[in-house]
Amino acid sequence: MNHPSEKPSHRDLGADLPAVTEDQRHIGVALPREGVRRLTQGRGQYIDDITLPRMAHVVFWRSPVAHMRITRIDRTAAQALPGVIAVVVGSEIAAICKPWVATLAHLAGIKSAPQYPLALERATWQGEPVVAVVAETRVRAEDALALLEVEWEDLPAVLETETALDPATPLIHPELGDNLCFTRSLDTGGVDEAFARPDAVVFEETYVFGRHTGVTLEPRAQIADWNPGRTLDEGKLTVWHSFQAPHMMQDLYCRQFDLQEQQVRVICRDVGGSFGIKVHAYPDDFATVALALMLKRPIKFVADRLESFVSDIHAREHRIQARIAASTAGDILAFEIDDLTGIGPFSMFPRTSGIEGNQVVNLTGGPYKHQAYRAKLNVVFQNKVPTCQYRGVGHPIACAVTEALVDGVAQKLGLDPIAFRQRNVIPDDAYPATGASGIKLEVLSHEACLREAKRVCDYDALRAEQAELRQRGIYRGIGVAALIELTNPSAAFYGVGGARIASQDGATLRLEPSGALTVMSSVGEQGQGTEAIFGQIAADAVGVDLARVRVVTGDTDATPYGGGTWASRGAGIGGEAVLQAGLVLRANILATAAAILQREAADLKVLRSAVVDAASGAVLLDLAELGRIAYFRSDTLPKHFTPELMVTRHYAQRDYPFIFTNGVQVSHVEVDVETGFVKLLKHWAVEDCGRVINPMLVDEQMRGAIVQGIGGALFEECLYDTDGTLRNGNMADYLVPMAGEMPDIVISHVQSPTKSSQLGAKGAGEAGTAGAPGAVMNAINDALAPFQARVASQPITPEKILRALGTLQGL
Amino acid sequence: MNTPLDTPRRRIHVQINGSAVVRDVECRKHLIDFLREDCGLTGSHLGCEHGVCGACSVRLDGAVVRGCLVLAAQADGHAVETVETPTPSARLRALQDAFVEHNALQCGYCTPGMLMAALDLVERRPDANREQTREWISGNYCRCTGYHAIVDAVCAVLEQQRAGRFADEVIA
After folding, report:
1. Distance from CA of B97 to the nearest CA of A (A)
2. What is the mean pLDDT of chain A?
3. Which of A62, A226, A397, B122 has the most CB atoms within 10 Å of its CB?
4. Which residues, numbered 54 to 93 in chain B, qualify as contacts with chain A under a Cβ-Cβ cut-off of 8 Å?
């Protein structure tokens, strides 16, 4: 029986744009991912599911305090426990793994201190690994941890960003001279003039964004195995890794351990969530590899949840003073922000911890056509968990600040938030355009998205209902946020700064003898559906059924070289490489068919797994027969013709520094003004990620990302005590969104393909997280408007709402 | 003080996915570690090890439990069911199909536990509506999907059930 509700309602979008392939049947279509059926059967293979011969387990003794000098480590008792293989300290690891300093040349002046896999004399945050304990089993290693004796002397901890740069504040790294990691200023000129205009209406507010973290349900995990040769040069390192960028780690292992690429294989199979958490090089990661080299056996490291909270990167922790000026006529004149952000004691390797603040500077005000903009950024060190790039990277902050300011000034002007945005966004016919911060925008659709947002949420009806309910003491709010999101980065993101992080990706397509198609891509799968869309693109590009396509990713021994998953680039960069390889393979198939059939290739087509006559459509040769001849009967082919049925193509986006996407989100909330509780009633998102490969997967990327954005806006915060220890570093006290409190999320699509590629796809992975915090904050402030109350600090807890309402005062 | 090697052990008899299993286990060992390490059933995952995230949800005598809050020794003489069962019920198969159809999983790490919770709902609360479905699965965290598609998938199976699809399979 096929009940109507069994089938999802995702609309196929392939026919909305000109086709990119001859017989486009899969691109743009909401096809389920057959490849994940095994995951519903418990047949996934995540790192902790893998057991290798000789495998041992490592656990780490981590600093229990924010800042300490290590005075004594006595490992006698721990080492004596039967089953314990080794207890290793920092200096022993440092003897084989070089330290690193995470800076980028294009972030002028950024600095950090050398960081080691295990702390040497000092530990600089609660959670920094200090001692490694390796045992035959995980439980035995944990038993041994309890027998380890470490003594330390507490050092003063730098926690507050506001005072980190004061002369009286201790220096975390005295050799750096101050606690400043990175600073940047941007000024277009004209800002003071804009704010001083007689017709200027100014709105000013300070926004606070709490620290939060990714909470991948599968923690960070890896198994490192060293197969020794006679010398270091002959050894082979294999790392099974829960990670987003296998080639990047291959390169880093080579550099830190003095190895060459042919010695290092990184394998990333099933990854249980990543979100940016698993794209950084962590100290315990290098320590695990070092232990494999030292002990010459596989070492498994799986972070437990408590250590995830103090060792996975955190993100955000920004305080932003911001203001906007608009004319009484309703035109935005200028934005100004001053961003202060704390990043922990080190800039994170290799992407640095300066990027998030840098993004805030680049992106604030992004959707709008004002010309005057001034921004200041200070990125400071502190004795907390290092922060780095987590889903959205600066976008949620820039968007929330921008959109709160826009709503604030619109309210002062007495203008409707959507009408005010429609008047001020860069118009859809004005592209390519340059934003006030200097960002290059290829093609965006703010006007179309605002129109669709207004339609899909039935905005006027929501407003009417809101007014009516207010009369009855029910306070609902409607919050709008327009956003831009950078995707498909060129080498401008990391490569130009000296980081060996590839902006290009490759795809290899091979026609198998039976007519099946194998796709090997350097972009891997972490659940978002990368492999599924590559299959859809390859099937259409070559002309075969999707059921005949398999996709191989996540193995540096098997795939082309590439950057992997970050900055919403998998579909746009990796997908284009698949398309280009597929189109060449199709041409090679036709050349092979022409040789077999003694026909002109131009008179032939590949259609649905067969070579057909282009004019009549008559089937001449199916691909299994072509494969049989090409692979096994080369004797029957013309003497100088060799079939090339395996093709590799690479793609890097080089037209713009980034390809921006855009979208609009609308949040509908109800605030209980007695308790401060927020009920999320519904959420709408209109997104434009260019050509949509699979609408169902884009919908789910949007929804998942929106909920992560809502998490930061309402619930998630790493709360530190005054001594620098994390108070809520466990799953019970750190609140991640649950099903019961999340709204239904309606997604609409507008498609403005990028011309930088033939596929025209932009990224879709992070826009949801970018827009949700701004939309939700605006919705809450809209609900609170009758009380002249506003909230500007995320997460927006009931307590903060009650304080804003004045019903809760004092400490 | 006991040294760690003194931890007591116990022989347990457990029915796991229909097969009788006899093992000697440390009394301190949790059911989820027993299933994963001693029985090779790695389909149920560890997400937090303190009873919050639900990734290790399995069924003990038909009731959903957190595998990280139950000791293996407590399962002695009882029946354990995981998503890896070679004989899934029609309802579990329908849920697995619906999860694929609706893309109700991304990374799949929470999925085995989520399916156990969903199966429990389908069996015990056949009249559950969308909001009640959201409430029911709130003990299982998913970090990827935002839950919407999971709710879609579970509600689709609830509707199939109400339409009589599983009428010939009695709930144990």
Report:
1. 8
2. 97
3. A397
4. 55, 82-84
Residues A405 and A356 in one domain: yes
From A275's Cα to the closest Cα of chain B, the distance in A is 9
Whether residue A708 lies within 8 A of chain B, CB to CB, comes out as: yes
**How far does B146 lie from chain A, in Å, by closest CA?**
4
Total domain count, chain A:
3
CB neighbours (10 Å) of residue A598?
Answer: 7
Q: Tell me if B105 and A740 make a contact (CB, 8 A cut-off).
A: no
**pTM for this predicted structure:** 0.97
pLDDT tens by residue, chain B, 172 residues:
455 567 899 999 999 999 999 999 999 999 999 999 999 999 999 999 999 999 999 999 999 999 999 999 999 999 999 999 999 999 999 999 999 999 999 999 999 999 999 999 999 999 999 999 999 999 999 999 999 999 999 999 999 999 999 999 888 6
pLDDT tops 50 at residue A166: yes
A154 and chain B in contact, CB less than 8 A: no
Question: How far apart (Å, rounded) are the C-alpha atoms in residues A477 and A193?
Answer: 34
In a domain, A479, yes or no: yes
Copy the structure tokens of residue B105.
């999983």
pLDDT surpasses 70 at A1 = no
Tell whether omega for the bond before A743 is within 30 degrees of 0, i.e. cis: no
Contact A306, A75 (CB under 8 A): no
A610 and A624 inside one domain: yes
Cα–Cα nearest to A722, from A213, A128, A208, A126: A126
B145 CA to chain A: closest CA distance, Å? 4
Q: Does residue A680 sit within a domain?
A: yes
> Which chain B residues are closer than 8 Å to A6 by Cβ?
98, 101, 156, 159-160
Same structural domain, A368 and A244: no
For A88-113, write each residue's pLDDT tens digit. Answer: 999 999 999 999 999 999 999 999 99
> Could you tell me the pLDDT band of residue A810, with boundaries at 50, 70 and 90?
confident
Report the CATH number that the domain containing residue A265 is assigned in CATH.
3.90.1170.50
Q: Is residue A497 part of a domain?
A: no
Report the CATH number that the domain containing residue A615 is assigned in CATH: 3.30.365.10
Taken in order of first residue, the domains within chain B and their CATH numbers are: 4-81 (3.10.20.30), 90-162 (1.10.150.120)
- Inter-chain Cβ pairs, chain A and chain B, closer than 8 A: 205
| Domain stop point among A626, A651, A676 | A651
Q: Does A81 touch chain B (CB under 8 A)?
A: yes
- Residue among B144, B151, B166 with most chain A CBs within 10 A, to mutate: B144
Supply the pLDDT for residue B5. Answer: 66
**β-pairing verdict for A440-441 and A433-434:** antiparallel
Per-residue 3-state assignment (H helix, E strand, C coil) for B2-58: CCHHHCCEEEEEEEECCEEEEEEEECCCEHHHHHHHHCCCCCCCCCCCCCCCCCCEE
Are A485 and A586 within one domain? Answer: no
Q: Is A531 touching B (CB cutoff 8 A)?
A: no
Q: With an 8 Å Cβ cutoff, is B166 touching chain A?
A: no
Residues of chain B with C-beta less than 8 angstroms from the C-beta of A32? 100-103
Judge whether A322 and A204 are in contact, CB under 8 Å.
yes
Whether residue A483 sits in one domain with residue A372:
yes
Query: Most A CBs within 10 Å: which of B116, B147, B166, as the mutation test of the A interface?
Result: B147
Share of chain A above pLDDT 70, in %: 99
Average pLDDT over residues A159-169: 98
Range of the domain at A589: 4-30+504-651
Smallest CA–CA distance, residue B43 to chain A, in Å, is: 4
HSE on the CB side for B150, CA within 13 Å?
38
List CB contacts of B34: < 8 A, sequence separation 6 or more. Answer: B23, B25, B72, B75
The CA distance from A741 to the nearest CA of chain B, in Å, is 8
Q: Identify whether A810 is part of a domain.
A: no
Model pLDDT, residue B4: 59
Do both A297 and A320 map to the same domain?
no
Same domain for A359 and A374, yes or no, is yes
* Tokens linked to A651: 């793609």
Do B4 and A81 count as a contact with CB atoms less than 8 A apart?
yes
- Write out pLDDT tens, residues A417-447: 999 999 999 999 999 999 999 999 999 999 9
For the sheet with A68-74, list strands across it: A122-123, A68-74, A149-154
The domain boundary, picked from A630, A651, A672, lies at A651
